[in-house]
Design a protein that fits this description.
The complex is a heterodimer of chains A (about 325) and B (about 300). Chain A has about 325 residues and is mainly alpha-helical. Helices cover about 70% and strands about 0% of the residues of chain A. A two-stranded antiparallel sheet of chain A has the order 1-2. The longest helix of chain A is centred in the first third of the chain and has 48 residues. Chain B has about 300 residues and is mainly α. Helices cover about 75% and strands about 0% of the residues of chain B. Chain B is built from 13 helices and two strands. A two-stranded antiparallel sheet of chain B has the order 1-2. The longest helix of chain B is centred in the first third of the chain and has 32 residues. The mean pLDDT of chain B is about 90. The chains are: A mainly alpha (about 325), B mainly alpha (about 300). At the A-B interface, α2, α4, α5, α6 and α7 of A face α1, α2, α4, α5 and α6 of B.
């Protein structure tokens, strides 16, 4: 790591000539020497000024990113904190969704995102194990990787259309938790594969070699040595997958989510309410958009807290894993 | 016994191969079902009329299914978000990979990751209730829900994608190249501009293409913020209706298997082909100009 990124101490700070300046300077003995060095001083000064300016721009870019995040968060916190209380979190919406809480949405989002993970994790982990542990480079692997990359690039609304055509209509699941879970599972699959593969890559090759040298078969090595070492990393990836699924709206609009259900879901074939869709509905299609603003802020804050909470857990957990290594 | 073991190993390997193929299976199912539900519209009107027709009136009688305004809106929104997102994303990546000290990196990196984790509906909501009134007031325009607002919000969604892929590309530039440049007396910035950026150009292009692909497919932001008028935009402050917004807004009211329903699926096909194209280009660049080591340059 260190050898690849020499620190800025190595930067040339002395006033030496660069090759271009050497060749551009005609050799004139005695006369004009002081003039040449003077020009070089200002040229070097200029070059360092340019560097200062550009690096300043870089910092501004980073600052803009940070500010954007802080502004969005602060705005939601300031406006949403007032809306959140015990009844908001534990009651169902009342009076055509202008009052009451968001409990059904929280439950729905939990069901959908964890369900998606249950569907996608085994396939994702197995795909990663194949790609990293078993596969030899060749056309098959190349096609699989292209498939994964392209799947990752499919827009979420197209996943929604696919879910509607395949799960809801063709498999006759209807607008239901199951259809939503399967659609979201397909959507997070590439995320899981990517993070699981990264976790496998972090397992030192010596582990595998030691196991194989002891006479263990490939599968025994994978199952007893590689997987236990890589599992925490895979878990981190699946947390990120859950958080991705929890915030997803377009994919569940046609497959699982509804404006309003009077009761909690009792089976996998019931439709549900979900936090992201609830925000969208209240903010754009409600009867009293302005009057329900506090509810909208509150719902958005709960969603953000959920998503960021999971992301922070993943980030911290990953940092700890890396430190242990 | 050893033979038995070998057979078992082969079987296990095959099982893993099958599970790895599930992505391909899902992708093929997506293609099959999109086309199955989208193609029937072309029995009613030609592909060129669908793509280049200027009138999108799906519910009038007789209906008109020309998606050119939606297509133009998608392209306009994506292009203008690129103008913001590319410099921002690449500069952030350069900062992270080249300039930031490890401590600063540990702070900035999670910020970018959290930015990527922001649910799109929340960004759309923010654009609706904060950015739109602000734009309306400060530019004195009829509505703040317009192309400009949408591209701004989209830019912040594609910056994390661009940043993280660019950063990987910059890291994989061989250290020798950089050291050689510094040893010749170039400043750090000159090294970045003349050595590191050219050497990681394929990775940077991949990052930018994937960022744009994310922007063109993003739904909730354009649904909530773009304004929703199916007109070919003539200025930055026109309200527009990009393709994903049309699908999301109209699917609920389109009668099952009606022309409108099929037309929306056909828009989905167009959208899918766009992102597929973007991804294939990115893949091609990444394969063709693979960054391997110092010797390849």
């Amino acid at each position: 790591m260190n050898e690849k990124r020499p620190s800025s101490e190595i930067l040339p700070t002395s006033t030496c000539l660069t090759p271009s300046e050497v060749s551009a300077t005609p050799f004139k003995p005695d006369t004009g020497r002081s003039h040449v060095t003077g020009r070089n001083h200002s040229a070097i000064l200029w070059r360092h000024l340019v560097q200062k300016g550009m690096f300043g721009l870089f910092r501004v870019a980073v600052l803009i990113n940070g500010l954007a995040l802080i502004i969005v968060l602060a705005f939601l916190l300031i406006n949403g904190a007032g809306a959140i209380n015990w009844t908001f979190l534990t009651e169902a919406p009342r009076d055509s969704m202008t009052k009451g809480g968001i409990l059904p949405c929280i439950v729905g989002t939990f069901l959908l995102s964890f369900g998606a993970m249950l569907v996608a994790f085994p396939w994702g982990a197995a795909s990663a194990i194949y790609l990293h542990e078993y596969a030899n480079p060749g056309p098959a692997v190349r096609i699989i990787r292209m498939g994964i990359n392209n799947l990752a690039g499919v827009p979420s609304v197209v996943f929604g259309l696919f879910g509607l055509a395949f799960f809801v209509t063709w498999l006759k699941l209807g607008v239901s938790i199951l259809a939503g879970v399967l659609t979201l599972g397909a959507l997070v699959l590439p995320v899981i594969i990517g993070t699981a593969e990264e976790a496998l890559r972090a397992v030192p090759a010596t582990y595998r070699e030691a196991s194989l040298a002891l006479g263990a078969s490939k599968w025994q090595t994978v199952y007893r040595v590689v997987l236990p070492a890589a599992f925490p990393g895979m878990l981190t990836g699946s947390i990120l997958g859950i958080s991705r699924a929890a915030g997803e709206t377009a994919a569940i609009m046609f497959t699982a989510a509804v404006f309003f259900t009077p009761r909690m879901p009792s089976s996998l074939f019931d439709p549900v309410m979900a936090l992201p869709y609830h925000i969208y509905v209240l903010a754009t299609a409600g009867t009293e958009i302005e009057a329900t603003r506090p509810l909208q802020y509150g719902t958005a804050l709960v969603l953000i807290a959920l998503v960021f909470g999971m992301n922070l857990i993943a980030i911290i957990y990953r940092a700890r894993l890396q430190r242990r290594r | 016994m050893i033979l038995d073991r070998q057979r078992k190993e082969k079987a296990i390997r095959f099982v893993f191969f099958l599970s790895a193929s599930v992505s391909i299976l899902v992708l093929s199912l997506i293609v099959v079902f999109l086309f199955m539900e989208g193609l029937p519209i072309f029995g009613k009107l030609s592909v060129t009329r669908f793509l280049f027709g200027h009138d999108w009136y799906p519910t009038s009688d007789p209906p008109d299914f020309g998606i050119f305004p939606l297509l133009a809106a998608s392209v306009a929104v994506t292009a203008s978000s690129a103008v913001v997102a590319i410099p921002l994303g690449v500069m952030t990546a350069l900062y992270l990979a080249e300039i930031a000290s490890p401590t600063v990196r540990q702070i900035v990196k999670p910020i970018v990751e959290l930015l990527a984790a922001l649910p799109s509906v929340v960004i759309g909501f923010f654009g609706m209730v904060v950015v739109a009134p602000f734009l309306q007031k400060s530019f004195n325009i009829p509505t703040g829900l317009n192309l400009f607002n949408a591209s701004l919000m989209l830019a912040f969604m594609s910056v994390p994608t661009i940043t993280s892929i660019s950063e990987d590309a910059i890291y994989s530039v061989p250290g020798e190249l950089k050291e050689a440049s510094l040893a010749l007396g170039a400043t750090h910035w000159e090294t970045i501009l003349r050595v590191i950026i050219p050497a990681s150009l394929s990775g940077l292009s991949t990052a930018i293409i994937l960022g744009m692909s994310r922007a063109i497919g993003e739904t909730m932001v354009v649904l909530m913020v773009a304004g929703g008028a199916a007109l070919v935009p003539s200025s930055l402050f026109d309200p527009v209706r990009p393709m994903p917004a049309s699908i999301a807004a109209e699917m609920a009211e389109a009668p099952f298997r009606s022309d409108h329903y099929h037309a929306l699926f056909a828009i989905g096909v167009v959208l899918f082909l766009f992102t597929l194209l973007f991804n294939l280009i990115a893949d091609y660049i990444a394969q063709k100009h693979k960054q391997v080591g110092a010797a390849t340059l």
